[in-house]
Automatic annotation (TrEMBL):
Protein name: TetR family transcriptional regulator
Ranges of residues in domain HTH tetR-type: 12-72
Record carries keyword Transcription: yes
Matches recorded under InterPro entries: Homeodomain-like_sf, HTH-type_Tx_Regulator, HTH_TetR, MT1864/Rv1816-like_C, Tet_transcr_reg_TetR-rel_C_sf
Domain of life the protein comes from: Bacteria
PANTHER family (UniProt xref): ACREF/ENVCD OPERON REPRESSOR-RELATED, ACREF_ENVCD OPERON REPRESSOR-RELATED
Length: 198
């Protein structure tokens, strides 16, 4: 039994090493530089070993994409949990989203196809978790008002369009100062919150 557990642990460690190597290559050279051969060289394995864990580069991208959404949802949840009022929760979660976009820039690019061709990834619970956190807070903010799922969805996309747009502008072309960007972001979030709760 112990040897089965050890083998499983080694497999998980190898899989983690492959993903870490892929992310390291991307951080240093960009998404266009990622290849199975480079990953194999980075972890000092042969390419066929990599294919035992991932059928192709797209499978690695899909796994990194999933990990990115899990990390983003965790950051947003932690930000939400620091506040009681839905308006404050919404602002905190969107600020966590903003911070994630620049702290984990390469993952954000992969997740949302900014400055790169996005891999075709199926909708997954991981990919939908950040949106669920936001829509839950929108429902709380609008508590007592009659609203349809379309209303909630429209408000979510209003938020996301503004925040993602500002993030994308800055990732692609480094917009104005960080202080100015954060103020624009807070102004936009505050305006949308007032429109929702007004």
């Amino acid at each position: 039994m112990a040897s089965k557990e050890r083998i499983q642990r080694l497999k998980e460690e190898t899989k983690t090493s492959i993903l870490e190597a892929a992310y390291k290559i991307v951080k240093e050279e960009g998404w266009q530089a990622l290849s199975m051969r480079k990953i194999a060289d980075e972890i000092e394995y042969t390419a066929p070993i990599i294919y035992e864990y991932f059928s192709n580069k797209e499978a690695i991208l899909a796994e990194l994409n999933k990990k990115g959404y899990l990390y983003l949802a965790k950051e947003m949840e932690e930000a939400r949990n620091q506040h009681e009022h839905p308006a404050q929760q919404l602002e905190a979660m969107w600020m966590a989203y903003w911070n994630f976009a620049f702290k984990k820039k390469e993952l954000y690019q992969l997740m949302f196809g900014v400055s790169m061709n996005c891999c075709s990834v199926q909708k997954s619970p991981e990919a939908e978790a950040p949106a669920k956190l936001i829509t839950d807070a929108i429902r709380k903010l609008m508590d007592g008002k009659v609203l349809s799922e379309d209303d909630v969805c429209r408000r979510y996309y209003t938020f996301w369009s503004v925040v993602h747009g500002l993030v994308s502008i800055n990732l692609v072309n480094q917009g104005t100062s960080d202080e100015m960007n954060k103020q624009v972001l807070k102004d936009a979030i505050g305006g949308i919150i007032r429109a929702i709760s007004g």
